[in-house]
Description:
The structure holds 2 protein chains of 2 kinds.
Chain A: H1 11-39, H2 43-46, H3 60-66, E1 67-71, H4 74-79, H5 85-92, E2 95-100, H6 103-134, H7 140-149, H8 159-169, H9 175-199, H10 203-211, H11 216-245, H12 248-253, H13 261-270, H14 276-296, H15 298-306
Antiparallel strand pairs in A: 1-2
Helix pairs in contact in A: 1-14, 3-14, 6-9, 6-11, 6-13, 7-9, 9-11, 10-11, 11-15, 13-14
Chain B: E1 4-13, E2 16-26, E3 31-35, H1 42-50, E4 57-62, E5 65-66, E6 78-80, H2 92-102, H3 107-121, H4 136-148, E7 155-158, H5 166-183, E8 187-191, H6 194-200, E9 203-208, E10 211-216, H7 218-223, H8 228-233, E11 240-248, E12 254-257, E13 260-263, E14 271-279, E15 284-286, E16 293-301, E17 305-312, E18 315-322, E19 332-337, E20 343-346, H9 359-363
Parallel strand pairs in B: 3-8, 3-9, 6-7, 7-8
Antiparallel strand pairs in B: 1-2, 1-4, 4-5, 9-10, 11-14, 12-13, 14-20, 15-19, 16-17, 16-19, 17-18
Amino acid sequence: MSGYSVTEPSSTQKWVAGVLVIGYALITLMPLLWILATGFKSSADSIAYPPKVTFQPTLEGYVNLFTTQTRQTPEYLDAHPPQTWYEEIVHDKGMVIAGPSRFGERFMNSVIIGFGSTFLSVFLGTLAAYAFSRYRIPLKDDLLFFILSTRMMPPIAVAIPIFLMFRNLGLSDTHTGMILLYTAVNLSLSVWLLKGFIDEIPREYEEAALIDGYTRFQAFTKVVLPQAATGIAATAIFCLIFAWNEYAFAVLLTSGTAQTAPPFIPTIIGNGGQDWPAVAAGATLFLLPVMVFTILLRKHLLRGITFGAVRK
Amino acid sequence: MAEIVLKNVRKDFGDFTAVQASSFKVEDGEFFMLLGPSGCGKTTTLRMIAGLELPTSGEIYIGGEEVGQKPASQRDIAFVFQMFALYPHMNVRKNISYPLVSQGMPKAQVNEKVAEAARILGIEKLLDRPVGGLSGGDRQRVALGRAIVRDPKCFLMDEPLGALDAEFREHMAEELRALHDRMGATTIYVTHDQLEAMQMGDKIVVMNHGVVEQFGTPQDIYDKPATMFVADFIGSPSMNFLKFHGKLDAAATSVELHHQKLPVPALREPFEGDMVYGVRPEHITLSDKAKYRGEIVATEYLGTTQIVTLQTHNGDVKARVASDQKAQVGETIGLAFNGKTVTLFDNQTGRALRSVLNEGVLSHG
């Protein structure tokens, strides 16, 4: 019998595993690729049947996404030749640009609310998790359970009370209101995740810092925080993904100034026919920030998902 | 450097008493060992001296100043942790300089001090390395570097050799002791290893269940144990305990075990009841002439000596004899005891009876 390793997979096993992983990746990536492609199709191409895999790319969808347009007479169009490439795209359809659309604003709202609530969740979560991890707190286990219990039902179950509460407090359709709401939802996850990470940091490091003449707070900022960076990054990604994608509360509580991108993007469909390239363009742009953020922190994320699985 | 005094220090964690009214004094420049089995309160005692735990009651003096309720950062002491606790996100140089940076020392002076500490410990080449890749011994040296760099009032060490390989421990123990002799720094060292304590310490405190059992030089602790716990804990194999019942006068010089008179150092107190005749294995000789008999049940060969286990009427006895002496399992042989070295214990309380041998030690122990 030839020598083989119990733990090392054979080359056949590796090959099969590789095919499975690539196959799965293709299946999951397909919709994303389709959205990306649709964003660059013309309106006609986007609804062509059978679907077109190769097509003439155009930025029409993106221009439609960012602008509002009106139809004009051929005389008017001839008298006003297009000045820029995007005016030309619109011009060719017999339209002129009337002004910017609201997509830019809505997108910025998503950025402010998403990153704002993520920062707040992680900031408060880190402080709370440190306290739960290090101090003798009366009823600690009950408090931790209470914090976790806020996650035991879908947040939308409390939508109506929150709607009424926000209306009375004047928080409806405000950035502050949405940041507070998403922070409240994310905080339980953030406290629990971060407590796990901080528990894993030996107390000796802080004690060494105390002995070295630092205060408890300095020991926290200079010794604990750098070592919890991985956990903080992973937690931040989870919080951002939730706040960024959240749809139900956004529909319910925002309509104007604080409306985020998720409830806005579907409204594009209604504006003068089903403009799928514009919807796809919006979805593509909407995916980008979380994708970039996740790629930047992906090493931490992987460790975050598997943390505690193997004791060192 | 400073002397350290503990007066009736006590620590409770909820209902659990970790340390009960401990008192002892560490002289300036002494290498002082806190010895005991795990859970005996020695680490808690050390942490109270460091300020990482605050005592429930009692006083702690470092260099004449009462610091019992002060935080660690204000006590000016250095602590070496068992797992070293080097800051993982800093390199060796930053680790060593960290306590100086907290004092706001100018950069040039910090560099000078770090270089000096590194030279003393022979780790100059490691200064710019991350601590992650260091061997156990080098981590230990860096931890010591972080301790010595700031000239603290004293060094506190919590089983600093516990994380090292056995062969390396010996070497590091010598290095530590040499470092101490060179710097003359007051050092309190926690260990559960009695050999380490005997080998390195100027003085030893033996603790058990949160109580100080005995406090003295290694010789006194070994030769004149104050309790049966100390006698049993120190020495390998540990002291033999022969149980008997009797009545002794204040000046008795012998006791009777199984109808044989055995010598003891002249007693200084009368006693009646269940007693224990405590004798170290090396103070027993095997000879046919001796009247107190035992049957050999096992022998262990250790090179220059051998440990012979005998069954007697008062319990099993281990004797350390020259390895060339013949000892056949199954043979019955006489045991002669070196009476001057014997300690008698009250079997009920485990306390040593006062005698000529130990009276100087017990009266201030």
